[in-house]
Amino acid sequence: MIYFDNAATSFPKAPGVSEAMAAFLARDAANPGRAGHRMAVAAERMLDDTRLKLTRLFDGADPSRMVFALNGTDALNMAIKGVLGPLAGKGAHAITTVLEHNSVSRPLQAMADAGAIELTRVTCDDQGFVDPDDIHKAITPSTKLIVITHASNVLGTIQDAVAIGQVAREHGVLFCLDAAQTAGVVPVSIEQMNIDLLAFPGHKSLLGPTGTGGLYVGEHCPAPGNGDTNHLRPWREGGTGGDSSTPTQPAIYPYYLEGGTPNTVGIAGLAAGVDYLSKQDTTQLLAHEQALVAKIIERLASDDRFTVYGSLDATKHVGTVSINIQGYEASDAGSILDDSFEIAVRPGLHCAPYAHRRLGTFPSGTVRISPGPFNTEGELDTLLDALDQIAG
Ligand SMILES: Cc1ncc(COP(=O)(O)O)c(C=O)c1O
Question: How many CB atoms within 10 Å of residue 381?
């Protein structure tokens, strides 16, 4: 099988990931706990080491504010419901974009439908970029949160997170960046981008296993329990492996948001993914993915049998591009690639219906091709030949 579905989850994982998981499971897989036996303490230490690695990778200030999540969706729900959820009071305004994944769009829409928030969904241009000025214009005195994706998971286009973060900070609005498509491959700086809430999965470009992710909670989200009513509310509550005496979540990060036994085995694998990346030149990894995208665009954009969506400048993409083949539904093209050529791509709406409405590709969607760091030029040639044969 040739795998071009890295935007959904990366495959293969980084060398060392499965070994680290197997070793942790075989040797150290106790339930972590700060005050427990030595195996529990060792498991907790592995979590803390990984928090530190992730905090450094994203230029954060305080590893205790690196909260583990089960995936990108979990981290985003933690952020969105934490800021805007039922305990936060009614009437807040949130700004998002048409490029968002359903893990952003759905929680926000559900709150808007319930009358709990006002929601503005800013559009993008034909190339697939959101104008930071449009975000600026959408801000009202009630705006509490701006949530945007760092790169579209449909088009692959990288958004100007620095400019949007600046707008948010200047207006005292919390800025949540969904780095699902960028974390690990595009530089993400919590400090330089003025990010208040950084949500990311561990299983995409961080090259870790599924079941992992994180939310970094910046200092503009005050620690709970200091009398400031503006702090994040936990949307998942339960055991925290430490202080069991408090009637509600202990008012200390990261445990405040981390109810339940964490995916220690997965996090051991995620740590190995981050270790692998720390030894690579990630500029080269991104350049490799962009070179593969550039070749797809070069071949297909000038061929009448194909449509390439969004920007044709591969340097503005992560390793993702969306196409359609004339005369084929996206789902049929995907099935043919799978059945006849053993090539994995992702047809359909990619959990981003508003993006497809904007592109005019709703409801059948597009064929998304997403190369990763381990794809070769030879594999891409096989894909391009297959597309040529299908298109006739
Ligand atoms: C832009 C974007 N945000 C959020 C998510 C959700 O991440 P997860 O699948 O880890 O829940 C995805 C997943 O594809 C995504 O592409």
Answer: 12
297-340: per-residue pLDDT in tens? 999 999 999 999 999 999 999 999 999 999 999 999 999 999 99
99 CA from centroid of ligand 1 (Å): 12
Q: Which residues partner with 69 through β-bridges? A: 213
Q: How many structural domains are present in the chain?
A: 2
For 210-234, b where at least 16 C-beta lie within 10 A, e where not — what string?
A: bbbbbbbbbebbebbeeeeeebbbb
CA of 101 to the centre of ligand 1 (A): 6
In terms of Cα–Cα distance, which of 180, 240, 178 is closest to 212?
Answer: 180
Question: Which atom of ligand 1 sits closest to the CA of residue 76?
Answer: 4
Q: Which atom of ligand 1 is nearest to the CA of 213?
A: 10
How far apart are alpha carbons 267 and 154 in whole angstroms? 27
Do residues 263 and 135 both lie within one domain? yes
| CATH code for position 148 | 3.40.640.10
Specify whether 90 is located in the same domain as 194.
Answer: yes
133 and 218 part of one domain: yes
Distance 41 CA to ligand 1 centre (A): 32
H-helix or E-strand containing 374? none
- The pLDDT tens digits for 73-82 are 999 999 999 9
Q: Three-class SS of residue 283?
A: helix
Residue range of the domain that includes 184? 17-277
